[in-house]
Design goal:
It contains twelve helices and twelve strands. With 292 residues, the chain is α/β, with parallel strands linked by helices. It has two domains: 149 residues, 3-Layer(aba) Sandwich (D-Maltodextrin-Binding Protein, domain 2); 88 residues, D-Maltodextrin-Binding Protein, domain 2 (3-Layer(aba) Sandwich).
């Protein structure tokens, strides 16, 4: 792992030993029962004590991705590193996994915080606790150079009966369904790189995803274009996600975010990944987004 820092068979002696063992067993069970609730808040203690915190994310630049030496890159990771330092630790362990394995992975104790830029959605709120939003983002389409099908919305895809590709577990799957795209016209793949490959290979007429990510693909690949943000899809509100028994850590993150969001320190950390002032939260709360 790389861190970023003698019993007789009869008589009184036997009876006393058995009684003592029974008492110790009850004491041990009682200790475990008492320790359980306290251990639910241990993540914040680990942070304050300067211990290593495991960050879970998938390879989804510019939100989050591993560097050459597996260091946590991307604007969400940059924010997480800043806040963790403010709260007491500079030690992190990156854990990279597929997008669809992020929530199950945290429940399996593979990592402590999801820093992949996960949007706050009602269904996800049933399984994790989100901090307040750390940004406001929009979806767009990744299309072949020149946008030959003239696609600029879900409506265009639906009316032309074309296939759209997106990441399995992304909110774009739900948004495409809600926009009337038929299930057999929504191709779901593992992540952003697979979205790009599906469009390049002609398996889909367009890929849908966050504007940041798709714009980066188009800038690096001359055979691709990205549309303007879609007019017929909800805005996305990413946040940090924690297990439901880590409310104290969530509260600490939220308190830190109040002064951090929009600060010079934050903008220096996230600016190089394309995050701008226009992407700052608009006042919509996690509670509102969890209600749907």
């Amino acid at each position: 792992m790389t861190t970023w820092p003698c019993l007789k068979s009869g008589g009184r002696l036997f009876r006393r030993a058995v009684l003592k063992a029974a008492v110790l067993s009850v004491t041990a069970l009682t200790t475990i029962a008492i320790a359980g609730p306290g251990s639910a808040q241990s993540l914040l203690d680990k942070i304050k004590n300067g211990e290593t915190i495991r960050l879970g994310f998938s390879n989804e630049p510019p939100f989050a991705n591993p560097g050459r030496n597996n260091e946590p890159l991307g604007w969400v990771n940059a924010m997480a590193l800043d806040i963790l330092k403010m709260l007491g630790t500079a030690k992190v362990e990156p854990v990279v996994t597929e997008w669809g394995s992020l929530i199950p992975g945290m429940h399996a104790d593979r990592f402590d915080i999801i820093t992949g830029g996960m949007y706050i959605l009602p269904d996800r709120c049933k399984n994790v606790v989100f901090t307040e939003p750390i940004g406001v983002l929009s979806a767009a389409l990744l299309v072949p150079k020149g946008n030959p099908e003239n696609l600029n919305s879900y409506k265009d895809l639906r009316e032309k009966g074309l296939i759209v590709v997106t990441g399995a577990g992304w909110d774009d799957v739900v948004n495409a369904r809600n926009a009337g795209i038929a299930e057999d016209h929504i191709l779901q793949v593992a992540g952003s790189a697979e979205v790009l490959q599906a469009v390049k290979a002609g398996r889909a007429a367009a890929g849908v995803g966050d504007y940041f990510t798709l714009k980066e693909f188009a800038e690096k690949d001359p055979s691709m274009d990205v549309t303007d943000p879609l007019p017929d899809t909800p805005k996305g509100y990413p946040a940090f996600a924690f297990l439901s028994n880590q409310q104290a850590a969530v509260d600490a993150f939220n308190a830190a975010l109040k002064d951090y969001l929009g600060s010079d320190q934050m903008m220096r950390s996230v600016g190089k990944y394309g995050y701008a002032k226009v992407n700052l939260p608009d006042g919509t709360t996690a509670a509102q987004l969890c209600k749907g």
